[in-house]
Amino acid sequence: MTEAYDFDTAVDRRGTGSLKWDVAENELPMWVADMDFQTAPAVREALERRARHGVFGYAIVPDAWYEAYMGWWKDRHGLKLEKDWLIFCTGVVPAISSMVRKLTTPAEKVLIQTPVYNIFFNSILNNGRQVLESPLVYENGAYRIDFGDLERKLSDPQTTLMILCNPHNPVGKIWDRDTLERIGELCFRHHVRVISDEIHCDLTAPGCAYVPFASVSEHCRQISVTCIAPTKAFNLAGLQTAAVAVSDPVLRHKVWRGLNTDEVAEPNAFAVDAAVAAFTRGADWLDALREYVFENKRLTEEFVKKEIPGVTAVPSQATYLSWLDCTALSAPAEELASFLREKTGLYLSSGEQYGGQGKWFLRLNLACPRAVAQDGLRRLKEGVLAFEAQRR
């Protein structure tokens, strides 16, 4: 399938105002989670057609947008969404920050499972709430939930909200149905609402499916808000297009009020057309992309195992990110990441910002042409060997 689309040709992103590529000429950025591929042809065609129209006034959210989301989640993920559940928003992060403000009061605790997407910390702390970490357990190269710790922290009367990452960024874990149901029952029992960030749900390994939190049980559906978007899977982050799905009418009204109060519930002139095109005509491209990216991940795991002693690529089922265990190097990830960038130009994300035991890990973005991934791996090997040599 990948032969139908060109993922090997590099697109020059320098000089385009790219956050990722605003780096020195010799540097290779493989940090922030956007892709170096052009988006699906169907999306590009829709945007070109919209641009040719030439008028970019205020936009509405038409029925086609609702139908695209409902059709995609029903056909792709087995979740039947109702039109009334869906609310447009400009992004998952603005929505999460808005919901933290609307669904909690200052100084209350918001639980997250670390290591986890670093911006969750910002959404909590910048709004005057407390971060409550329930660290994931890392054993034998795999992650699991410490349910004893999780229940103790959910039972704290000051804990009123949990942000779930499903699938989990950065560790690439797809939570199974039993795990999600157990989380949901604990949150229901202790009156904790759940924001389920499912933005990476379409970036699973071929043959692997994710489980929407709201599909697991009636309790999970009642207490949760699901954050969804085409932005990760179709590389559309700069278009600011996403949605939240909320089945409970009281919770939905609070979320809707929060999003509108914060002015993050209105689409720009391109946001709707891009999402509709992605979800109605982008499936073949996405399936080809998944095959390509997960071959990059497989090659990375093999290369790291063979060529870089002291580093392990944690096997993952989701995201286009590789989570590199550098514990054996006995150096904080921030120090190692700085050395790699200075010595080789390879720019990775330091795991410290993700909390938990992330301070011993690096995050590597593999949503790039294979030659770029191979260049990054060569730089990683060179840098790690040089780092070890200068410490002897």
Number of DSSP helices? 13
Name the average pLDDT: 97
CATH topology grouping of the largest domain? Aspartate Aminotransferase, domain 2
Order of helices and strands: EHHEHEHEEEHEHEHEHEHHHEEHEEEH
The CATH superfamily name of the largest domain is Type I PLP-dependent aspartate aminotransferase-like (Major domain)
Main sheet: strand order: 2-10-9-8-7-3-4
How many strand elements? 15
Question: Mind explaining what this structure looks like?
Answer:
- This protein is of the alpha/beta class.
- It has two domains: 148 residues, Alpha-Beta Complex (Aspartate Aminotransferase, domain 1), CATH 3.90.1150.10; 239 residues, Type I PLP-dependent aspartate aminotransferase-like (Major domain) (Aspartate Aminotransferase, domain 2).
- 41% of the residues lie in helices and 15% in strands.
- It contains 13 helices and 15 strands.
- The protein has a seven-stranded mixed sheet with strand order 2-10-9-8-7-3-4, with helices on both faces. Strands 11-12-15-14 form a four-stranded antiparallel sheet.
- A hairpin with a 7-residue loop joins strand 11 and strand 12.
- Helix 1 packs antiparallel against helix 10.
- The longest helix is centred in the last third of the chain and has 25 residues.
- It is globular.
- The model has no long low-confidence stretch (mean pLDDT 97).
